[in-house]
Amino acid sequence: MFSYKKGKVVSITNDDKHISWIEVGIDGDLYPAVNYNDLTGKVKIGNTVVLNTTAVELSLGTGGYHFVMYNCDIEKIDLEGLGHIMKLRYTPYQIKCLVAEEESSPYRSVYDNFESLDGHKFVVCTLHSMIGPISSMIKWLNKDISINYIMTDGGSLPIYFSKTVKELKEKNIINKTITIGHAFGGDLECTNIYTGLIAAKEILKGDVTIISMGPGIVGTGTKYGFSGIEQGQIIDAINSLGGKPITVPRISFKDSRERHRGISHHTITVLSEIAKTSSDVVIPYLDCNKFELINNQIKKYKLDILHNIIIENGKEIIEAMKYFDLNITTMGRTIDEDLDYFITLGAVGKHINKLLT
């Protein structure tokens, strides 16, 4: 179920070809809202719009935004562009996309002739907040490394909602993007993780590919009930096609929830039960007490039996993020407020740099 209300567009605070960040008036109050131009057309000040208000009413972590469902002042939007594959299938917002592997795609032969990922490096994340620090660390250490990004459909489906991706592209930290599954809006569209992996290696041809869902991981507090569980399946997909997966653990000592202390239970579940094949798992150097807790977790859950545990220094992440002027937060916490989380991402970036140089 969802809730919706009518409102009027009062101002457009920021927009581009695909997304408009707007303010709407509802019953005399102002609210921030998002309009996806590809779904509901371009908005103008004064337009009457129907808004999905569900997330705000539930106080969910969407930044407090309503979402435009329908613009009452637009009579029709004509179908444009190539492609025959539907995303958001069988919903009122189903859209057609030209996916890289479909018959009419210029890249179809890539898939017909594919044999192996040949050890291409894939960094497998869970939280969207991981991609900025990792990619900035890689680029800070070696500006010549080319980084691409695959966005899964475990969080936000439109890539346009990610201000992080837009900033990373504008600052030439990441190069191109791929959206897979029902996620959409990447430089390339793909049907699933396997065709996305192939596109990253054979079409975009970067040095390394970072994989993560968009903003908005889903969690229920149960062992298996979180959308980041896809990390384990992605590790196996990479190995099955001959790539090299590097797993990013979620590490923090600032989260108020005990299950996320040290190595998060999300990461432990993925590495001990979900992933059936091996990966490099990068652990940062931290102070003795923290490192001992993490090492005990590794031994308790036998993470070092299946996976290759890499210990790396990630403290230079502070300089890297300052250099690129990145102000990324995780769960609302800045780098100063959750330094160990960001040091972990710096360690991953440093490991990638060593693999590529």
UniProtKB/TrEMBL annotation:
It holds the Pfam family DUF3866. InterPro entries: DUF3866 (IPR024479). This is DUF3866 family protein. The lineage of its organism: Bacteria, Bacillati, Bacillota, Tissierellia, Tissierellales.
